[in-house]
Amino acid sequence: MPQLAPIHVLLLLIILLVTSCTPKPPTTPQYIDLLQRHTVHTTTINGHTLTYLDEGQGPPLILIHGFGGSMWQWEHQQEALAEHHRVITIDMLGSGLSDKPETDYSPTFILKTFTEFMDTLGIPQATLIGNSLGAGVAIGMALTHPERVSTLVLVDGFPANVVDSIASPSYKRFVHTRPPLWLARLGMWLAGRWATTRILTEIIYDPKLITPVVIERSYQNRKASGFLPPLYSQIEQIPEWEKRFAPQLGDITQPTLIIWGEHDRVFPTTVGQTMHKTIPHSTFLEVPHSGHIPQWEQPQVVNQAILKFLHSN
Predict the structure, then answer these.
(1) pTM (two decimals)
(2) Nearest partner of 307 among 104, 87, 100, judged by Cα
């Protein structure tokens, strides 16, 4: 039997990898284990399955994760906020346990899906709490459907000039010179947990928090079938977010709490302070010893600030 040349072996591996990474129907688990075990709920929006958690009773809060994230980034908020509120934690389409359809993840598509999600759950109005790109979704809802948003909590995002505001060299390179999808899939396959660890060190300030458990669940989220195309589409849509909403930040009328990690390597605190000056009726909180997801690194500080803000509005 003839021997394959190394280049042919590599090409064969690439073909197998690319064909094996096409989206497959997801299997939604009944439960998810964060700090505690939570029941996973699902709903269907335009033929696509959205997964979410639904805890507590009271005025509704919807927690929206950031770019490439999932509901685990809000694990410290479930119990604390659900004491007085109905806390809904969504995996956005294209992320986490939700479906990852091949489509343009434009602001119109994302906001339409989010509005229909609220309608399906019978929520006419809610407090929106968004981290990073999730803050962009919250801002877009507040400006496009102001009657649906009672108050806003924006955590480390989403600034007017997103690309120019990025301080992280790794994130900047990915936005400006990201590899083609097939190469990114190959890189995910080859680099795996190493690449995931590098990403986590960019967004988490305290390296002691980057445990094997955190690395593994983040890696499993990123290696999920169909993960990369939505990510690429969201990056390509950043100019549209800026065009539609950046000029209107000063028109936000809802009471707004802006929370920022003191050591955010993605968007420095000066970016958050600029947002605070731009958005009327806003309050700014800088969270010490935290990076791009302060609600996860310093949950006690963040939860107390959110509850105080909500009870005063």
Answers:
(1) 0.90
(2) 87
Strands (E) across 85-148 are located at 86-91, 126-131
Phi, psi at 153, each rounded to 5°: -125, 115
Boundaries of every domain in the chain? 29-311
Number of residues assigned to the chain: 313
Residue 124, class by beta-carbon neighbours within 10 Å (0-12 exposed, 13-18 middle, 19+ buried)? exposed
- Amino acid letter, residue 96: G
- Please report, in angstroms and rounded to a whole number, the separation of the first and last CA atoms in the chain: 75
| 5 burial type by CB count under 10 A (0-12 exposed, 13-18 middle, 19+ buried) | exposed
Yes or no: domain 29-311 corresponds to CATH 3.40.50.1820: yes
Confidence of residue 130 (pLDDT cuts 50, 70, 90): very high
> What are φ and ψ of residue 89, in 5° steps?
-115, 115
Helix/strand/coil percent split, the chain, to 5: 50, 20, 35
Average pLDDT value for the chain: 89
The three-state secondary structure class of 49 is strand
DSSP 244-291: HHGGGGGG--S-EEEEEETT-SSS-HHHHHHHHHHSTTEEEEEETT--
Which residues sit opposite 92 in a β-bridge?
none
